[in-house]
Amino acid sequence: MKTRLGRRLTKLFGLDHPIFLGGMAWLGTAELAAAVSETGGLGIIGAGNCDAAWVREQIERVRRTTARPFGVNILLISPHAGDIMDLVCRERVPVVTTGAGNPGPYLKALKAAGVKVVPVVSSVALARRLVRAGADAVVTEGSEAAGHIGETATMTLVPQVVDAVGREVPVVAAGGIADGRGLAAALALGADGVQMGTRFICSEECIAHPAYKEAVLKAGDRATAVTGRSTGHPVRALRNILTREFQKREAAGASRAELEEFGVGRFRAAAVDGDVARGTVIAGEASGLVRSIEPARVIIERTVREAEEILRRLAGGVS
């Protein structure tokens, strides 16, 4: 059933629920993206560092599974970013979200192809710049999020971005959100909806290795660490042997090139091969809220139902 929450966002993107799937490399495959879209959220294929041929295959698989809107997340620091931009324009993918950079140079081509563009931003300045350039909405991601992060927390960043650009475009809150309480809080901060990634790692449709999912399920409130600040690309992941060694090398003054070489292939090792000790287990602080593996449909419908109940209770003045 279509919710009344986040109507500006759901109307713009043709959704039933104001929930985006985070753009997760290796994990945001057609299976998960299609399941989220079919339930009425916005499923997102995570391109990561994959090439355009892989992304084309995923697009085709989503379209064979659902007729609902979906998107592709493009990591702008990927060597394949330009080719994937060309692909999504040719394929007229409904939505593109972007991460780890400024998509400004691509906006004109994307808009000309009829693609709705939703950059992931971690600052007010970047949100303003991209909305002026023609972004259709922004995902405002706090530092609690998984993967590449900024410096400002969700609770303070979201309302500032809403104040700056919320009159012009919908604002989607991300970072630390995994249930209906997070959705209700985001709406209270002025956002039009939420993006969740870590919660969907523990969905039945996610292809993450069972050991990876189990690591997320076992995570507590202090389970994550941030590495790579010295490289200019800080990343949040679950603490393990790898993160401790990475931080040790950073403290010893290892160069950016040495650190990047040390991290090559580590995410795949965890996500695909299940090496959760020496692989990069990308997960946000919301991992401490994840306690079960369920179908994406159940996750979405419960999140919306919980948020609706919370907001009704608060509107009635019930503590």
How does this model look, in words?
The chain has 319 residues and is of the alpha/beta class. The protein is 44% helix and 14% strand. It is built from 14 helices and eleven strands. The chain has helices at residues 7-13, 30-39, 52-65, 81-91, 104-112, 124-133, 154-165, 180-188, 198-201, 210-218, 241-251, 256-263, 266-271, 296-315, and strands at 19-21, 43-46, 70-75, 95-99, 116-121, 138-141, 147-148, 171-174, 193-196, 224-227, 235-238. Strands 1-9-8-6-5-4-3-2 form an eight-stranded parallel beta sheet. Strands 7-11-10 form a three-stranded antiparallel beta sheet, with helices on one face. It is globular.
Give the topology:
Elements: H1 7-13, E1 19-21, H2 30-39, E2 43-46, H3 52-65, E3 70-75, H4 81-91, E4 95-99, H5 104-112, E5 116-121, H6 124-133, E6 138-141, E7 147-148, H7 154-165, E8 171-174, H8 180-188, E9 193-196, H9 198-201, H10 210-218, E10 224-227, E11 235-238, H11 241-251, H12 256-263, H13 266-271, H14 296-315
Helix pairs in contact: 2-3, 2-14, 3-4, 4-5, 6-7, 8-14
The CATH C-level name of the largest domain is Alpha Beta
The H-level CATH homologous superfamily of the largest domain, spelled out, is Aldolase class I
| Secondary structural class | alpha/beta
Question: What count of structural domains?
Answer: 2
Q: How do the strands line up in the largest sheet?
A: 1-9-8-6-5-4-3-2
Number of strands: 11
Based on the coordinates given, report the CATH architecture of the largest domain.
Alpha-Beta Barrel
Helix-strand topology string = HEHEHEHEHEHEEHEHEHHEEHHHH
Low-confidence stretches: none
Oligomer: single chain
User: Span between N and C termini?
Assistant: 27 Å
Beta-strand fraction estimate: 5-15%
Q: CATH topology of the largest domain, what is it called?
A: TIM Barrel
Helix content: 40-55%
Cα-atom radius of gyration: 18 Å
Number of separate helices:
14
Q: What characteristic shape results from the CA principal axes?
A: globular
Average pLDDT works out at 94
